[in-house]
């Protein structure tokens, strides 16, 4: 999936992936896609809930070599 910006949040524990994601998505225009890479197992539920509550759309998520990848469309 194509993204406009990639955020490397690997090695960060909760709540830092969310904090970094919020900062990164604020730098994007509405409709652009942020790709987030995280290793925190809680990130899957956290980013899904954060996306919904913030009016963003979690387009896709995947796990690859113990890295969780998320594509979030800015609302």
TrEMBL record:
Residues covered by the UPF0033 domain: 7-31
Family annotation (Pfam families): TusA (PF01206)
InterPro entries with a match to the protein in the record: TusA-like, TusA-like_sf
Family: Belongs to the sulfur carrier protein TusA family.
The name this protein goes by in its record: Sulfurtransferase TusA family protein
